[in-house]
Amino acid sequence: MLPGRHTATPALVDGLHEEAGGGGSAADAALAHLAARRDRYHIADPARDLSPRQTVAAGGTETVRLQQRHRGVEVLGGQYVVRMERKGGKRTVTGTSGRYFTGLKTAVTPGADEALAVERAVEAAERRLERAGTTGPRDDAEDVPPLTGTARGLVVLPMGEGVLTRHVTVRGTHPATGEPVLQEVYVDARSGYPVLQYSGIKTFTPAGAAPATAARRGGATAAAAAAAGEEQRVTGSGVKQDGRTVELQLVRDDSGGYVMRDRTRTRGTGDDNQLSTWDARGKDVSDVSGRWPDGIKEFGSPTPGFGKDATEAGAVDAHWAAGKVHDYYRTVHGRDSLDGRGTTVNSLVGVTWFGTPYVNAFWDGTKMVYGSGDAEYRPLSAGLDVVGHEMTHGVVENSANLVYAGQSGALNEAIADYFGNAIKTDAYGIAMDSPDSGLLGETLCRTKTPRACALRDLNDGRTTSASFLGVAFGTDNGGVHLNSTIFSGALWDLRKDLGRTLADKVVYKALTEYLTPLDGFTEGRNAVLAAARALGVPATGLRAAERAFNAHGIVPDWELAMGVDSDLLLGRLNTTDSSVGAGGGWWVTAKSNDSGSEPYSVWAGRTDGTGALKLVSPNDGRYHVNPATDGRTVVWEAYGPGSVDLLARPLAGGPVKKLLSGRRGWHGLQVEGTLVSFSHTFRPGVPVQVGYLRLGETEPTWVGRHSRRDSTAFQSLRNGKLSYIQRTYSRPTGYRYSTELLDIATGRTTVLPQAGTPQYLGPTALTDRYVFWIAREGDDQARRAVRRANLDGTGMTDISKETGPDALFAGALTASDDAVTVTAYHRDWAWPAPGSQYRNDILPKLWQFSTDGSRRDRVSCNRGEQSQAAAAGGRQVVWMDATTGYTDLVTRARPAGRCT
C-alpha cells in the first residue's frame, strides 16, 4: 500500500483478494467495498462523497472510476478507482488507486456571482495572451470577435482545505496571432480572483473542451446522408504522402460519388465506430477549434480511386491512419473506439492559419484537426505517429483524463507519444533497438533527413535531475511538451525490455485502471509498476521496469534534487498571475500558504535577506496581488466579489487605505512618494489607459490620447515623470506607436525619437538620467532593440541592437541607475517552429546590461523559467524562478555572467 500525498486515503492498494459481492452494479460493489473498510480508505461516506463516473468491463475484470464530491460539488482531479474480477457471479476486489482528498473543509456557498466570474476569467485569459510574442493587435483586430466565457459550474480545487471556484471556459481567437483560444479558468467563488488557468487544446507540437455536440454533428450528417439513399460500402484506394498506394474504406453516396466514410467497423445500421475524413481546406484553425465549421463535407471523389488532390491535402493519410489506430486499440486492447463506446472519429484536414500554411495538429476534445503543411512539412496527417498521438488524447480523455497542465499534462503528452510511436513502429516494422525507433514526426519533411525532421525523440535520454524544466502555467501549460520525453523515454525503454505487446498492455492498463487526473511522474511510475504486477510480469521484467524509471530520474521525491545559483528570499509562492516589486531596499510579493488554498496576501522583506518578513495586506479572504513599493509605501490590488480595489499602506505600518475601486484590475502598479501610476480598462473591448493618482486624491488623471482603438500602456514612474507607450490608429496607415514622457508637475509631454518607424514598442523603464524602452522596427518579430534616450529626448541609442548575432527577443525590462535587466525570450518559445523543441535555452531568461550597453551578462544560470524581474538597486535583481518546479522569489546581488 502506497500512502497518498496530503491525504489519509492511500494512493495505491494492490494485491487484494477481497469479496465485494456479486449483486447490483459494479459501482454499487465498489462503493460498498470502500464503505466496509473505512479504516483503510478513510472515506467517511462513499455513497455521499463519491459518484460513479465510468465502469469498464473487459475479460472478466471491472474497473470503476468514482468522482469525489465535496458537499455535492465536484473536486478537480478527485477520482478513486476500484478494480475487481468477476467469476461465477462473484466479485473480488483486486486493488484500488487514485486521489481522494480527506482534508477538504471549505464551504460551498459562492460569494462572487457567475457573471463576475465570467468577466474576470475573460480578463485573465486576455492578460495571459499578452505574453511575449504578442506584437500588438493587427490592423484588422476590430473585426476579431472578443473572447467569450461560458460558466461550467462550481468546482473545488483540492488545495489544503479546498478552494471553491467557478469553472469558466474561455473561447475565441487571439487578436494578434489568430490562434484559437480555449482556456479553462477557475475563478475563486468568493473573491472572484482567477486562481488557475490552462489551455484545453492538446497539440502535437507546442502552441502559443469543445461542445459535446460537435463530435456528433459530423457523424449525424454522415448518417443522414446514408439514410437518404441506399448506402454502399466500397474499398477504394489512394496514394499516401510517401508514395504508397493504400486501400481506403469508403461509402458510395446517393449521388453516385465516393466519400471517405469508413463504416466497416459499425454494428448493424448504427453509426458507431465510424471513421470520417473531412475537407477543411479554406478553413482557418480558429474556425474549427471547439466548434464544427459550417460548409465542410467528407472528402469525395467521382471514382473509388482518390487522386492527387486528396493526397496533397493529407486526406488519404488521415483516413488510412485513423483506421490503423482504431484497429490497434481494438485488436491489442479490446477498446471500442476512443471513448470505449464506439464514438465516431472525425478528422479534419487542410486547415490553415490566416490562409497561410499551418504546421501542427490537435485534439480539441471532439475531433482531430490536421494542418495543411508547408513547403518543407507535409500535412501532419502524413505521420502515423501524429495521428496515433492525437487519437490517443481522446483515449486519455475518456479514461484517466489527465489534467493538461504541469506534470499531469506532461504525463498526458508522454502517453500520447508512447502509443502514437508504438502504433507506427509496429505498422512499419521498425526495430525497437534502432536508434531512430523513438523519433516522432520524422516522416513529415520533404527534404530534411528523418532525424533532422523529428519533432521529438523518445530515445533522447532526458532525466529529471538534468533535464526537467520548471515553468509557470503560462508557458506550455506548465511544461506539458517541455518535460514529456522524460516520462515517455522511460516507457520506451520499458518497451525495449518487456517487448512490444506486453509493454503496451502494461501502459494501457496503467492508463485505464490506475491513473487519475492529477497524477504526476511519481504516481505514473507507481501505476505502471502496479499494472505490470497485475499482469503477471515476472520479477526480471519488474526489475527492468524499475531500472527504466530510475534511469530517467523518476524516483520518489525527485523534485528535491534541483540545484540553483540564486539566493532564496521567499519559497513556494503558490500564486497565479501576480508580479513582484522592489524599491528602497525592500521587495514585495504575493504569497499563498504551502498548499495554495489560502487567498493571497502581500508580504515584504529586505532585499539583502536580513530582518523579519512583514505581512502588509490584511488576510481577509480577498486576493491581494501585484504589489509595488518605493521602500516607504506599498500599493497593490485586492480582488473581492464586488470590485477590484487599489490599496496602499506604509511599510512602517498603519491603516490600509483604498485609493480606487472598479470591476477590473489596476495593472503595472508603481509608487513614488505620493504618486501612484497604473493602467486600467473599464470594460471588455475598451483599450487600456495609463493613469496616475496622488495619495489623498479620489480621481485619477488619465494620460495620452484615447479612443475606440487608441491606448496607452507600459508605464514607468520616477522623479515625478511618467513614461508610457502611446498607440494611435488611423486609416489607412493602421497602428502607430510612440514613446512619450510626461512631466506630471508641468504637464509637458515629450515624444521621444525613434530610429525608424516602430512596428512595436514595449515596456518602458525610467531612471534618474534615462528612459529605456523596447522597440521593433523590422519585420522579424523575434528581434527587438533595447533603446535609451535622455530625459529631454536627446541622445537616443540602442544599448542592445535589433539586428545582429546578439539581438534579443526582449519582452520586459526593469532598470536601476546602474543597470538594465531584460526578460528575453526565444523565437521558438513564442512561435514554436516546425521541428523545434522546448529546451532550457529558449525559456524566458534574464539578461543585464550596463546603461551604456557596454556590459552584457546573464543574471542567473538557473534551469527553468525566470520572470517578473524587479531592479533592486545597483546590479541586484529579484525575480520569480520556477527551476525547482515551484515558483520561488529569489535574488542575485550581481549577474552570473556567462552560462554554458
TrEMBL record:
Residue ranges constituting the Peptidase M4 C-terminal domain according to the UniProt record: 400-554
Protein keywords: Hydrolase, Metal-binding, Metalloprotease, Protease, Signal, Zinc
UniProt record, GO biological process: proteolysis
Domain spans labelled Peptidase M4: 235-397
Ranges of residues in domain FTP: 59-88
Domain of life: Bacteria
Chain segments carrying region Disordered: 129-148
Thylakoid among keywords: no
Annotated catalytic residues: 390, 481 (proton donor)
Molecular function as annotated in GO: metal ion binding; metalloendopeptidase activity
Cross-referenced InterPro entries: FTP_domain, Peptidase_M4, Peptidase_M4/M1_CTD_sf, Peptidase_M4_C_domain, Peptidase_M4_domain, Zinc_Metalloprotease_M4
Family: Belongs to the peptidase M4 family.
Name of the molecule in the record: Metalloprotease
Organism taxonomic ancestry: Bacteria, Bacillati, Actinomycetota, Actinomycetes, Kitasatosporales
